[in-house]
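Example with several molecule types.
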Amino acid sequence: MSKPGEILLDKVTKKFGAITAVDSVDQVIEGGSYCCMIGPSGCGKSTLLRMIAGHETLSSGRILIGGNDVTTMRTGERGTALMFQDYALFPHLNLANNVGFSLKIHGVGKAERQERALEMLERVQLAQFANRMPSELSGGQRQRVALARALIMNPQVLLLDEPLSALDEFLRLKMRVELKRLQDDLGITFIHVTHTQPEAIALADKVIVMDHGIIEQAAHPRVIYDQPHSPYIARFMGGQNVVTGTVIKAGSERIVAEAADGAKFDFATKREVAVGEAIRFSVRRDKIHVVPRAEQDINAMQGEVANVEYQGTFVKVGLNTRQDDEFIIYMDDRAYFENPLNVGDSVISEWLAEDVCHLLGENNSSGD
Amino acid sequence: MAHGSKSGRGLTFYLLTIFFVLFILFLYGPMIAIFILSFQGETGGMTFPMRGVSTHWFNDLFASTRYGDLAGSFKRSIMLGAIAMLITVVVSFFAGLAFRRRFFGSGPVFYLAIISLVMPGILVSLGIGQMFQTMGIRPHWLVSGLGAHLSWTLPFGLLIMFAVLNRFDSSWEEAARDAGASPIGVLRYVTLPILYPGLIAVALFGLTLSYDEFPRSLLAVGTKNTLPIHIATLTSNVTTPALYAIGTLTTALSLGLIVLAFGAIGASQRRHKK
Amino acid sequence: MNKTIISWLQVLPMATILIAFVGIPLATVVSLSFWTFDGLEYYPDFTFENYTKVFSSWVTWKIFFNTIRYAVITWAIALVIGFTVSYYLVFHVRNLKIQIALFLLCTIPFWTSTVIRMISWIPFLGREGLFNNALMSAGFVDQPLEFLLFSDFAVILTYVNLFTLFMIVPIFNAMVKINPNVIEAALDAGASQIQILWNVIIPLTRTGIALGTIFVMTLVMGDFFIVRVMSGGQSTSVVSAMKNNIDQLFYPQAAAMAVLLIAVVVFMVSAILRVVDVRAELAK
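Resulting structure tokens for the full complex:
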């Protein structure tokens, strides 16, 4: 028996003419979890969300919610509620009627409708505006009304299509906390589509990274961030340097690779590789240290400073290497300013083997 | 000019204001003149000066038989207008919804509407009359006449629906479906209420364009005239201010309809705001 | 249900009515132009005679020329007035409510009878009309001006009076959509008012001008009543000549002229539509 709110995607495919927007996606989203779907625009995340909501029909495959096959079920009957990107509040109805709209459609009497809508508005702290029209609200207030409207029928699954994208930075951070708190309170499944990495990492129990209609990686945000599956994930999620190298020593579960500039990397792997094979791996930018002298000739690199950017809590130093990707170090700000660097300085950097991750996936796109 | 908020009122502004006022005078002056002249005294003529003020010419319209079947043609025009309005609203509404996306066949229908709009009315009229003759059906104001009017009101209705739907966000309909509304429920609770002011505009166009339509009906109404055709024939044989009295009455009716329609649109928008 | 099928069902009533009362009637006119007329009645017997008659008569060419002359003069005046009025309303009237009110003031006559508005000029233009009285009492002229009523002047004046609003509405609509930032950017780039008008505003109101042109041109070319009444029967346009033919029951010949006119109108409109994609612009 599956939990209520569990979503099972079974070879879900959507084609628009010759274009495949979602390509045979398999995935289980646990009931009661907070799941974020992320990827560049056109990656298929919104289409997938709309198929779960029932606003797009599947070209092939199945969708199960709480164990029920809802593939051909009408939207509004599958226990989902969608919160629209631009909120889509009805301009001709006041807040109470907007929130109570589903109840009206389901034949709930006027008095009860009003009462339950007010209750829900109370929950989002807007009860005093029940008789206002949407046009009289601020962006943040509209967002909360949209949330209240989506939740009125007690859905098993709340689908949120870029719910914070229309808000300014300050409000966005505030509402992010609110969303998480609400999901904790309600204990229902949230599926949240976003294009902002920090948002996904901050909120999700599970992050699904998509590209070109397929799921590149689906895992806990910590796994996604620390052990990216492919160069694409490493670049898209950020915080990693992607390096290409040739295997010079292949042991069991441990390899040494050499980059184009001669730097040697020693790290663990889960895949068999052969000497001479070209591979890609990533190094956590915030785990790299600038040192006066290298302890060993492995897991260290000499480079010329190409640029320096102060970021507030850390300093971003870019090194010139013979790679396509820049080699970037996030230095502790105190440490940096004790010994500031100039563009053109030659520095030696060093890191630990455990901060290197072998990128097994093939997707090498830049993620934009 | 452009960003008036910063610059002061320059010479251009005053020149353009004078131009605009002159244009408005040019637009309304003649109408105001015949409005005044329709109250011409009994002995007065079709031009100024006024020889007294009276409602003689209005009374004459109702009393005299000189003006033919004025009442009958008026009744027919009102009836045609009402029917054309209803059909225009319903048909343009659905066609407008369809035209939100391109589909096979949308191009030809759109161009047919444009052709109907730009074709000299009398050609459409000639064609409709001839088509009925070929089919062996006598033209009748309620059949061929109505068709002629629709060929004029529907393209306008469609163009207004385009403008109205520009500001319609189809995610409102999706939100209603998401709430479990059936296609009819979506139409009833969301699409129609939101588009209501636009539909009044379509109705206003349908009614007034039909009520004032003249060249398209000319050869298509059969033996019974509509009011504009009747007035057109009167222009050549009535040489008294009675002609202006008719003009005043029918213009007043049109203006009344406009006020009514704008009132309804205004009221619905106030309801939206408050 | 398939989305295309739903669209078809939605557009079906419109398509049916337009085919029945525009498509087939125009086809009927075209076929009628090939019928034979023996002086008493006309019957379906294929002939080119109607066209030969129409084409070979120099009167036809004169009438066509006259019609196009009316259309071009009216169009030019309406364009200048329509553009100036829209420009004033959009860029010089700052209060949005007043702007909308003044715009409506320009469009209200659209909903009233053209026949009545035409008649309204008679008390102005006649020998004893307001103009002549005013001119004479001011001492500008000794004798009433004869050319005012029943002349080309009266015809064009009435056309401009009736049809200019068809130019104002589309140009105004195009102008209000211009993003004020674009004009600020032009000012920033050092453009003068005239340069902004020429390089920014006019190109951005192109669609409106095109739509207005279509309306005004086709309205003038389709008129027979105004030219007949306001010229006092002295002047003829294509459609008024056609109407004469119809009144004398020369249907096939009228149809041949009609087809010629349709060709001219369709050519003109499609030429304009080729330059601007009206449907795409309408959807903006």
